[in-house]
Amino acid sequence: MGKPSDLVQGTLDLLILKTLLLEPLHGWAIAKRIQQLSGEVLQVQQGSLYPALHRLEQQGWIKAKWAESETGRQAKFYALTAAGRSQLEKETANWNRLSAAIDLVVGEA
Amino acid sequence: MRLFSQIQMAFLSLFRRRQASASLDDEIRYHLDRQIQENIAAGMSPNTARETAHRQFGNPALLRDQATSTWNGAWFDSLLRDTRYVARSLMRTPGFTIIAVFIIALGIGANVALFTLVHRVLLNPLPYPDPSQLVSIYEHDAAQSSEHGYAPIAAGSFAEWQKASQGVADMAMVSPFQGYSVSSEGGKLPEKIDAGMCSWNFFSLLGVNPALGRTFGPADDTPNAEASVILSGSFWKRRYAGDTSVVGKKIWLDAKPYTVIGVMPESFVYSGAFGGNTVQVWTPIAHEFPPSLMKVFDDHEAIAVARLHAGTTLHALVSRLQGVQKQIKAEHPGPGVHDSVIGRSLLDDAVQDYKTPLYALLAATGCVLLIASMNVASLLVARLASRRKELAIRVALGGGWVRIMRERILESLLLSAAGGAIGLLMAWAAIQWLVKTRDDMNRIESIHIGAVELGFVILAVLVTALFAGLISAFSSKLKDVLSGLQDSSRAMSGSRARAGLRRTLLVLEVSLTVVLLVGAGLLLKSFQRLRSTDLGVPADNVLTLHFGLPEARYKTGVERIAFFENVLSQVRALPGVQSAGLVSAAPGQGYGGDHLVSVVEHPPLPKGTGIDLQTRGADPGYFAAIHLPLIRGRIFTADERLDRANVVVLSKKAVEMCFPGEDPIGKHIKISVNGKVGEVIGVVGDTRWNINEPIMGQIYWPLLADDWINVALIVRAPANVSAFAMPIQKIIGGIDPDLPVSGIGTLRESIAKSTVDSQFDSLLVLAFAVIALVLAAAGLYGVLTYLVTQRTSELGLRIALGARREQLLRTVLLDGIRPALLGLFLGLIGSAAAVRLIRSMLYQTEPFDPFVFASVTAVLLAVATLACIIPAWRASRLDPMQALRTE
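Structure tokens for the assembled complex are given below, as produced in the milestone run.
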């Protein structure tokens, strides 16, 4: 049984960075957003988001801030940094190349 | 920016770990709560909503750990945990820990102390601006042997050099071995001080500024200027209590008034090969030297210091001056005029004498550290061996191999760090002691532990830790460790290999120890030779005191003779004094001047040559007082004085030099430089002027004449001769209260002073060698004990099967002695190479002294046998039943 979080290594990072491109979000909202945007196809195991978020934060691609959420409770909001923005571009380009390559192979068959 | 935020993150996760954890918990809790709310909104019951949320989220504890492990400081956390674990396990075996730390502390402490010495004395630049441009220039006589390659220069030559060096270098002249008597003033006692006379530009050339007042100007440095003096910082503090009003005042040197124009900072020291670090006052040389002395080429009283202009090299300067000096020699072919010039950097000039000994000592401490870390490595290997089961279980349960390796390194790092800290303390104490005891050494004042030395400690700790740690880490391979689980205690292969490694270490240890022992043996023998060298006269129960009569007060020879005789008669009248005499320089207390002489009755020698004899003045009572044996003829009579002082007494060596195979009595000796002639009336025994130097021929003239100003008073008493120092000083003070008495001490003490170098070097190397020997013996004992324990059952079996105990004893003993023998062999080969390096430190001792090599071999074999005999004996006494039961 394939776990829903079995995404290609690094893909989760790409998804998170892309999600944060529009606005700062907290963890739960990120999970929701990914789920929605992917038309419920990408079922991220919600908890696995957190190691990824912390890794990205350690690498300086996103930064976190505690702020009041829409329900009025304090939540940790993640925002893209300048370094994160360029990383996103790089990873997007990578992804495009990879998916185009896979398309080619799959289309050929 | 990104780097900055990464560092910030690392910092936060390192030091605000607790806060970060709490924050992560909050974050997860928030997520779960939102999910539960959403689930409830979707119509689930609260319980189902909670369960579903948790299912959707996954295992919070695991994810939490995964999240924290992404934090940059995570490795630090586990390192801390390992460190705590290793520290705990070291605490559990305090005996092992204390021994290991102590061994490392010894090794590192000795190295740090020696490194500090080498760094501060030999390598640190001199405390002047642009010190690399400063050089010392000497004269050199190509014809004479190179024994004293660097000879002081004549003031006349200097003037020529200075002219010739214009445009390529600035040159100053300094005569750092002068002295004055300071008169008593304002309740301060009279004293004799070391002084330096220098050309006016000496200070500006070095680039130092006075702390108070000014330095000399060209006008001060002329014969007719008003006498001026610059005080050294320490003299100013000591005698004038740091009184700033002393500048402009007059002080009395040799009974003449001098105006103090400046005070140098206390940090200013000039040290050269001919002294200078004890100079208390500086005076301008052209004012102090008689005008005639400033012009001559054959009286060598100074040293030239030059600052090279940019683009000039020492070599270029020397070869330029070489031409000048050749010209001088051609124009003045006199015997005392040197024909050549030689130079070296000012730093080399100061420290040349210490280079070989200090590097030899550093090499010795390096060996000690190497032995120490090998010993610790060996201890760690043994310790690891006793923990094989534990390690095997950890590896079997999935403990990371790298982690276990890291623990080994951490273990030795902890030991080394503790050892390094203690070693640093030991080094500090050693340096304090050294600075106190070796104040005769140049640049000793600059020795202290600074940043570079601390860096060296850290480096030494790391190297020791890695060396010992890696050896112990690689001593056990993964599969060996795992085999520990299947092992019954009978399987030996792994432990055999480990013992092999320890044996190799042991061979190295023993060979290094042998090198150290040989070095120490040679130095000790050399020191013994030096100590037992005969001064020429019995050195016990002789007190010497020095004083000089200032020409300003004692203008004529008659006045001086009256003073000398007054002192002598009062001293001889002291109850308990056996005999007393006056001499210009006592045996073992310095060179005291020399002259080139010729024999009047012999055909004249070629121009520019002569026989070099040390010149002494002695009163008629001196020879009896010092117990110098009269070999032929007679000594001076009391009325051979002043105009009638035209008789001389020669030493035995001088007779061999001047009158080979002849009877010297009645013949005449002529001093080349001033034409003074004396009739030889007697021959006495030889004395040494320095215990380290070969005997020179000596000629004695009557002291009761015009020429003698500085004298040594010799007093012999049956016992406790030092007690007469006080009454004699009172006698001299009673005759002239302004006259300082200096250099009070026994002849024995002055010999000890001139052997202090040799004593210092030999005792230190001996100490290191003994440490090495003890470490090697401990290593030998440890390895053999370990082997015997490992082989207990085998040995028990052999005994049970009827092996003879003597045979077992021999087998085990040989097992331990073999690495010692191999180490001894390698060590002797190593020594043969190493002793060449210390040849220059040896006195009348051959580097390949068979006695020393033989004794070292014997000592090493004895110690090795002793270290092995206990475990071997124990092995041969095994009770077979018990041995077999230990399974």
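The longest helix of chain B spans residues 346-385. DSSP finds 27 helices and 22 strands in chain B. Further analysis is deferred to the final report.
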